[in-house]
Amino acid sequence: xxxxxxxxxxxxxxxAGNFLRHPYMLGSIIPSSRFLVDQVLEPxxxxxxxxxxxxxxxxxxxxAQILKRMHPQARLLAIETNGDFVRYxxxxxxxxxxxxxxxxAAQVGAVLTRLSLPAADYIISGIPLGSFPDxxxxxIVGKTRQALAPGGSFLVYQFTARVLPVLERSFGSVQxxxxxxxxxxxxxxxxxx
Length: 193
Ligand SMILES: C[S@@+](CC[C@H](N)C(=O)[O-])C[C@H]1O[C@@H](n2cnc3c(N)ncnc32)[C@H](O)[C@@H]1O
Prior knowledge:
This protein is of the alpha/beta class.
């Protein structure tokens, strides 16, 4: 993380406090472990990727690692519904390649159009999709599929496999992975069109 990204203690307090207020939207009481972050980002071709989108950046645990690894000319669009996290990220990650948008992942297509951004090479999702109502789950996965460039991938991490059927209906290939070194242990899905 950059030096001015805020202390981990501050991040933990902000994240846990928001979990107590919005448990259903956060899905976890603490941010992802470095083991999970590394495994989520493992499929990314950093030389090729020019537009990455992240759903649900929270306090920026994955975001900071994407910024560290991505090409100097690449851009990262982070879409987050929680206003506290949006303000925190804008203050603590002042990287000109990062756009933090206060909106829902369901609006990904509209946000890309509004910002005149092209289709995404990778969309990385930490939102608790599996707990969402079926219609919202299907809407977000369908809009994600449309927002991806040819050859693009949807990288999903979750604490259950409930999202698998909708991923398999929308994507030609879904590979499954597992990371036990996280609280709670996480399921990963690498989806290609
Ligand atoms: C489990 S936390 C993940 C936080 C962080 N990415 C990490 O790995 O530590 C889920 C995040 O998704 C956000 N979120 C929930 N529903 C969302 C939606 N529909 N669109 C965008 N963000 C959403 C929550 O506010 C929260 O920040």
